[in-house]
Amino acid sequence: MKKIFVLLMVPLITILLNIGSPPASVAAEPEITLTWSDYAAPGYDQLNYIYHYIDRIKEETNGRVEIKLYPAQQLVKALQQYEALMQGTIDMCNFTPVYYAGKIPILCLSSESSYWEPGDSVVITSRTAKMIDKVLSRDGIKFMGWSTELPPMCVPGAKIFRKASDFKGLKIRAPGKATKVINAWGGTGVSIPASELYMALQKGVVDGAFTTIGTVEGTHLWEVIDAITFTRNGGSPQLVCMNREKWNSLPEDIKKSFEKVNREMVPWAYDHALNYVGKTKEFLKTKFKKSYQQTPEEHAALSKPAAGYIWKPVIKKFGEPAQKLWDKTLAVAKESQEARKQGKTPRFFED
Do 58 and 97 share a domain, yes or no? Predict the structure, then answer.
């Protein structure tokens, strides 16, 4: 009888203990929801940085913060991100400075990437974070201290491009101000959206493109063009930012969680950028009929006529502040290159 009583009481006690407790499978609702707008479509590598960041913020805040990502320009167009961030229409984004040359020309300096190698833009932005934040704060934007990296440039086309004369008489698509680079090589720079590049190459509207290996991978350009030439440019930064008013409204403990994750993202993004470049180049070599890696000498010769297409006019217009940022950018790039020669990881941050 006693044994039967015990057997009956165990499930009863279990039921009583669980009354009022939420099911284990039901997660607590986040206290804070932030919107992140991005122009990249699903499948593009730059979203991998963001996915990782969102997961880490959720972990560090114990689920109190949820960042909702809206890729593929669902909320705002790429060229409207900066203004939307200023106005608080979106809470967060990572934007490419060179797209906003009219608004923040001084920050476009780090987009002239022929002076450094893949991964270095991540290092550069972490080492110049205070300078970047000072510029952005004037527009009500908070720089989070790290950047994703647009992968290095390449030239898909009907032939291999080794020297400037190879571009002569050809129409080459290039992003924004990079059309000046094509013009300096004797070609005609054409500015069209990356999303239209596949059709433009297929129809012969352009003869080639000066674009990132990420764009080539994401748009399957090997289906409409035969050759790819890999340059020796580094990647360009995409600055991760938040609307400053939104940042100021966050509780202090949440801010500390963000600051912790922001700091750890720099070495993570650096390693990710290097791994991505290596894997993607090898992948693209198997897809194109012809592929070629420019030599250091070819890169130097091509860089010479195009050098300064961003930094020269910016320094001329803004003087000492721009010169200081450019000098710092070059110094950090040189340090990074020297560290790699010695088999070391570059130094992140200034403190």
Answer: yes
